[in-house]
């Protein structure tokens, strides 16, 4: 009979390989053995995705490997999410994400979402073609810690500024951390439009988001 320790190790390994059917099967096996959902998350899935990020940074993994590992974890999360909600597992923060108006690209955004969720964030994905007023409406509704604007086209990057102006006008700019990203986006551009943070890839987004959130909370408690 497979032990809980063996299941955790296999869950880690198969997530790293991006073997979605096996990850899903192992998740069900673990739950049948009455293993805790948070154990699967914190002792296998999150460490595996962190290793994926580390390998990407070293140049050992590329975007396709990150995507398939992310999708494998996403399948497990579909099963675990309602169970984790029932156990009251604390999320580290709330992240509202969307691709800006005029842009329908979402592969990068979806990968970032999976990595954020894997790191313990609650992610609210507004999808693609998100207008400034929709961002404002959803920020008021969900009260996120961070909002992320994604753009894949140089022609839609000016929407970052339009979104920030909309937040300013609604009196929300100081309430939320704003991060921007996407293939053509640079740190210089993020600084120019007045964003709080930028990251070049999904792995870096998680680190930057955690860092910005920590700094904001330190200021609040200071």
TrEMBL record:
Give the UniProt keywords, A-Z: Cobalt, Metal-binding
Superkingdom of origin? Bacteria
Gene Ontology cellular component list: cytosol
Q: Which GO terms describe its biological process?
A: homocysteine metabolic process; tetrahydrofolate metabolic process
Query: What is a GO molecular function of this protein?
Result: cobalamin binding
* Record has Metal-binding as a keyword: yes
All residue ranges annotated as the B12-binding domain in the record = 92-222
Q: Which residues form the B12-binding N-terminal domain?
A: 1-92
Q: Which PROSITE patterns match?
A: B12_BINDING (PS51332), B12_BINDING_NTER (PS51337)
User: Which family is annotated?
Assistant: Belongs to the methylamine corrinoid protein family.
Give the protein's recorded name. Corrinoid protein
Q: Could you tell me which species this protein originates from?
A: Nocardioides panacis
């Amino acid at each position: 009979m497979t032990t809980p320790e063996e299941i955790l190790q296999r869950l880690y390994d198969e997530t790293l390989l991006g073997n979605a059917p096996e990850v899903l099967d192992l998740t069900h096996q673990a739950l049948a053995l009455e293993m805790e959902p948070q154990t699967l998350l914190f002792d296998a899935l999150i460490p595996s995705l962190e290793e994926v990020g580390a390998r990407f940074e070293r140049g050992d993994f590329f975007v396709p490997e990150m995507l398939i590992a992310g999708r494998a974890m996403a399948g497990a999360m579909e099963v675990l999410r309602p169970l984790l909600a029932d156990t009251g597992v604390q999320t580290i923060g709330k992240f509202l994400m969307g691709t800006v108006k005029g842009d329908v690209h979402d592969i990068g955004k979806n990968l970032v979402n999976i990595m954020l969720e894997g790191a313990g964030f609650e992610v609210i994905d507004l999808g693609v073609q998100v207008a400034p007023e929709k961002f404002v409406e959803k920020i008021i509704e969900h009260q996120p810690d961070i909002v992320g604007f994604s753009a894949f086209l140089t022609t839609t990057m000016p929407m970052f500024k339009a979104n920030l102006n909309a937040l300013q006008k609604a009196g929300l700019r100081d309430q939320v951390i704003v991060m921007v990203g996407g293939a053509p986006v640079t740190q210089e551009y993020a600084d120019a439009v007045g964003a709080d943070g930028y990251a070049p890839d999904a792995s870096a987004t998680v680190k930057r988001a955690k860092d910005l959130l920590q700094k904001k909370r330190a200021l609040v408690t200071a």
